[in-house]
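Exam revision sheet. Question 4 asks you to relate a sequence to its structure. Input first:
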Amino acid sequence: AEIFASIFIDPEAEQIEAARATGAQQVELCSANYAEATLGARHAQPEGRERIDAELRRLRETATLAAQYGLRVAVGHGLTYRNVGAVAAIEEVEEFNIGHNIISRAVFAGLFEAVREMRQAIKEGTNVKTKNSFLDNRAALS
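Answer key, structure tokens:
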């Protein structure tokens, strides 16, 4: 029986190569470093913006590499309503694994509304032309 395999990896070219060598059909890129960089007021400082841009670049470059190898691309870990837009703008990303933020919102808004809001945040991100700026994508969601 053929089993669909997805491997959770850091956004590094070497890990894409290793995932490809295993015969996996999909990689899930860990977005934890990007998500951490977007927390609080860190993004307002120049070094914070540089870190966000660097992490988005890593995600974008490894997503492109994975897609070139014929791997499906998912992203997850630490994504929120506020930071998902910039990741959604990465064309190769087909799937988002977001749990904690949606369930936290659902406590107050209900699950249907929480999912609707996240889908809207993702949709808004895919419509942003810059495809690499957390701040530009965040403004589009305001």
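Marking note for examiners. The CA atoms of residues 41 and 91 lie 28 Å apart.
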